[in-house]
Amino acid sequence: MPLLKSWVASANSANHPFPLNNLPYGVFSTGEDEPRCGVAIGDMILDMAAAEAEGLIALTDYPLFDVPYWNDLMEEGPAVWAALRERLTALLAKGSKEQEAVEPLLVPIAESTLHMPLVVSEYTDFYAGRQHAQNMGAILRGSPDLPANWLHIPIGYNGRASSVVVSGTPIHRPNGQTKAPDAEMPSFGPSKRLDIELEMGAVVGTGSEFGQPITVDEADAMIFGYVLLNDWSARDIQGWEYQPLGPFQGKAFGTSISPWIVTAAALEPFRAPTPPREKELLPYLKGSKDGLYDIELEVLMQPEGADRASVIARTNYSRMYYSAAEQLCHHAIGGCAMNAGDLLGSGTISGPERSEFGSLMELSWAGREPFTLETGETRGFIEDGDTLTLRGNARGDGYTIGFGDCLGQILPAKAWG
Ligand code: MN
């Protein structure tokens, strides 16, 4: 499908992240206004609450968009999602008869504040990047061999919805308990090995029943859309606490997501297969569709006061071993109910080359081999004041599907006690 032309001129450039083909869903406010739903088109946001109040969008007998989250639309299910996308495309297409009515409802993104686009119901993070899992094994255990279950199970842990925040929210370096290998006792204080994880987040739009298993194809249809996700990680806290039950405080202090939910519908032309299976998956984990997407990803780092950000990694979401649909199926297979607004982190996305590694732990090989930024500074892990940014783009025929930056600045640890 080529670029769809819009009467919003800025949306018609091949490199703009928000063409008519995209139509990502966010929550915005201007000045003292209450945050409400908005759709990005070019440099503008269509005020969905206003469009609904004007009668330009009427999908249901009750309002859906004068709220600071997209969960109400998610609850309506795939038929209404598709109807909304069709209606928005008609309203914003070049030659639309309704241009005059819609034009006053556009707000410049540059004059808006973006908020969390959804209420995160629950948050689960996975470990589905093979290169990442091998790198972590090599760094932590001296061997890149995968855990015995890795090729059979999309490994995950239950994270905290309460600490998922929108791009731009500063993150304080966490305090926590750590123990150096040669120390007799653990100690308490600010993490010294603060890291990122480059991930995609899948947003569940349709729930599943408690006690009811689902198939991979059903799971695929339940996914509403995707965001960029930075699973901030305190490696020293994580390293001391993680056995035998997995990550806890090393992850719970913050997870950042990009401000726009890019719909699964917008990403449909970019579907990509999972890699060949080294071990055949059990039948319940097999679906009929390509579950990954061809999305170019990059990570940038900018020290406080530096005049520019340096790209420190570039990779692609299609590097993953398990798709979000496979992860969602596995999550629900024992009867766990999944809900609209659930967020599934993909796991760190790392490609085979060092330039494709999606965490500083890998890029600096646990700090043993620091890397150099364009400004000449070196880094092993994150220092106070550093800003980390994730970017994602799917490249179509004359258009780009972008996510908007997922960034966060690290502030010094808070005093305690
Ligand atoms: Mn993670």
Automatic annotation (TrEMBL):
The active site is at H132. Coiled coil: none annotated. GO terms for molecular function: fumarylacetoacetase activity; metal ion binding. The keyword Manganese does not apply. Pathway: Amino-acid degradation; L-phenylalanine degradation; acetoacetate and fumarate from L-phenylalanine: step 6/6. Keywords: Calcium, Hydrolase, Magnesium, Metal-binding, Phenylalanine catabolism, Tyrosine catabolism. Residues 123-392 form the Fumarylacetoacetase-like C-terminal domain. This is fumarylacetoacetase. The lineage of its organism: Bacteria, Pseudomonadati, Pseudomonadota, Alphaproteobacteria, Rhodobacterales. The gene is fahA.
